[in-house]
Amino acid sequence: MRSRYTAFTRANAAYLAATWHPSTRPANLSLDTGNRWLGLEVRSHTPIDDTHAEVEFVARWKPAGGGAAVRLHERSRFVREGGRWFYVDGDLKA
Questions:
Q1: Residue 35 in 3-state DSSP?
Q2: What gap in Å lies between CA 67 and CA 89, rounded to an integer?
Q3: What is the pTM of this model?
């Protein structure tokens, strides 16, 4: 999760695509390069079994054009294949 957050802060679409499971990965990733990232809080990590896990996190940033900070609170699902973890999808939290 932390490496994907870092990839967002650096607008590293190639890394995000490489760590996104092919079954749910979008064909194109469009990243806002001017956002100012404010932090990541990993609230929980829940192993489901040897190849599945969930991570609850809050990421915060300020939009490139200014304005109020944005908060993304998500419970993400990951799957392990070939020794690597891949982001599958997530549920947004209020």
A1: coil
A2: 28
A3: 0.91
pLDDT, tens digit, 9 for 90 and up, residues 26-79:
999 988 888 999 999 999 999 999 999 999 999 999 998 888 999 999 999 999
CATH number of the domain within which 86 lies: 3.10.450.50
Closest CA to 36 of 74, 65, 2: 65
Q: Provide the domain count of the chain.
A: 1
DSSP letter assigned to residue 20 = B
Q: How far apart are the first and last CA of the chain?
A: 20
Tokens linked to 85: 């973890």
Task: With H, G, I as helix, E, B as strand and everything else as coil, classify residue 26.
Answer: coil
Residue 14 belongs to domain spanning: 2-92
Q: Copy the structure tokens of residue 68.
A: 């109020």
